[in-house]
Amino acid sequence: MKTVAFFDAKTYDRESFLRFKDDEINIRFFENKLNADTVSMAACCDGVCAFVNDTIDKQVIDKLEEYGVGVIAMRCAGYNNVDLKAAAGRIKILRVPAYSPYAVAEHTMGLILTLNRKLHRAYIRTRDHNFSLDGLIGFDLRGKTVGIVGTGKIGRCFADICEGFGMNILGFDPYENKEFSGKYVSLDELLGNSDIISLHCPLTKDNHHLINDLTVGKMKKGAYIINTSRGLLIDTQALINGLKSGRIGAAGLDVYEEETSLFFEDYSDEIIPDDTLSTIISMPNVIVTSHQAFLTREALDGIAETTISNLRAYFAGEKLENEVTL
Ligand code: NAI
Q1: DSSP label at residue 191
Q2: What is the bridge-based pairing of β-strands 286-288 and 47-50?
Q3: CB-ligand 1 contact for 184 (6 Å cutoff)
Q4: Which of 35, 80, 254, 269 could serve as a FRET partner for 44 with CA atoms 20 to 30 Å apart?
């Protein structure tokens, strides 16, 4: 029997992982996020299962190797929080390359519809018996242009949804894909012509703060920016400047560059220490969701099934289909 330390465990994780459990793998669920302070919980374990806001840096990897942990199974697609260089040749890193791209693409359209038709404000108003329509005017999506940065699995699903709405679709991706239903253009062209810009690329060392004061300045006046990818793709201060000047018409954020210590936890009884996040949340044309775009039953089941199968293959010494290497 192999033991796996499962960090940042939530009720929905336990439910889906217990549905796909393997009799040869004993999962120890911990609510703590994995970082240098909590890594000792993995002592005596054979593997670790981690998520998007765990900190898997050199210090953590050194400790895991010392404890004899041979594998880190990421239960997500992204792995920007793993120091791959430190792990190379010491600990195997596995991931779930695809589960439900529809979950994220549909959440993206949900953010757009909510922002454009002001559903978040209408919901609050009618609960207070305020049936006024002042300030709730939106625009037809039909005929508008959406710019998709990153046309991989999620970007392409999102393009298909936009096609159903009758939108013009532009895309930017260093690796073009024949199945993309829109037109490929340069990033500058996309920024200057899109009414809505949606980010669907992974966070890499080259695209940190892809959206900054300079790129915001290239956007069409009043453009919406949607980020369901990774927080560090956007310089939040540049976003705030753009929102204040009106260059950016609205923002839908499922991710935030400083989300690690806040997202997935309940701070509703406290004053959060992050003034930048408090500022954007207070804006009427901004919606923040706490990294929930993936959260559908289908996606959770897909994540659990692939993660367990990744671990089973590792412990059985089989070929690793979903290994991440440098
Ligand atoms: P994918 O690997 O299928 O596609 C990513 C695409 O981005 C590729 O076509 C790649 O060539 C392109 N790309 C890379 N660097 C780029 C750049 N600088 N500019 C433009 N395009 C670039 O990945 P998938 O499954 O579509 O996921 C995309 C991202 O969505 C993930 O990397 C992850 O960060 C995020 N994600 C967020 C979730 C959430 O719950 N909010 C859940 C799952 C993924």
Answers
A1: H
A2: unpaired
A3: no
A4: 80
